[in-house]
Amino acid sequence: MKQQLPWTLLALAFGLLVWISAAIVHAENQRNALVTQVCADPVFKGEVSAKCLARVDTRAHWWQHLVYAMAHMRPD
Prior knowledge:
There is one protein chain. By secondary structure, the protein is an all-alpha fold. It has one domain. It has three helices and no strands. It has helices at 4-35, 50-55, 62-71. Helix 1 packs across helix 3 (62-71). The chain starts with a helix and ends in a 5-residue tail after the last helix. The model has no long low-confidence stretch (mean pLDDT 92).
């Protein structure tokens, strides 16, 4: 019983880290899509396609989004 609490806290911390990383990857993917104008709506000029924004992959791998987001904490 004494060892259960540290392992439980470690598992919760790891789960939180995975969840935050997934959120950062998703946000960076959408930020990059908006900056590069990948999801421009063809019908309404100057607008963004929400369907495209939800499904776009702007980099080859998820870890590239994570590394970029961690290295660029402030906007250029």
